[in-house]
Amino acid sequence: MIDLHYWTTPNGHKITIFLEESGLPYRTVPVNISKGDQFKPEFLAIFPNNRIPAIVDREPKGGGAPLSVFESGAILLYLGEKTGKFIPSDIRGRVEVLQWMFWQVGGLGPMAGQNHHFGQYASRWRSHIRACRSTPSHGASPTRTRSMSGSEAGSTPKGSGRMAA
Length: 165
Known about the structure:
The protein is an alpha+beta fold and 165 residues long.
């Protein structure tokens, strides 16, 4: 059984989608980040980075004591390896999956999240966010689109001024 320490955020949803698709049994443990639950001592004792999502696997592969994992990318990789699902075993397939996972957790996800946060909640920073954050998150989309459409690796769409990651 997986305990998913969760709140309704895009990062939280990544893990619920994986758990649903893989069929792993889990229970959600709400962590209301609007009320600061992620700073409570009982949460920090398990997950020192005070962020969701986080999991405790009560039945880790190979047995032993429960295993806690935090950060969405680490959780996805752990669950993929535990279940043998969604991460190919051949090197080319594995690299393909991992590069897109890392692109999402290190690029598009944070930029889109910051864009949403500053655009919706931090109105005094709107002009700053438009200048600093809109371009990187916009620039990530052509990278994904080119790859999904089979475009040449490393090609740059006309006028974008950005190289493919």
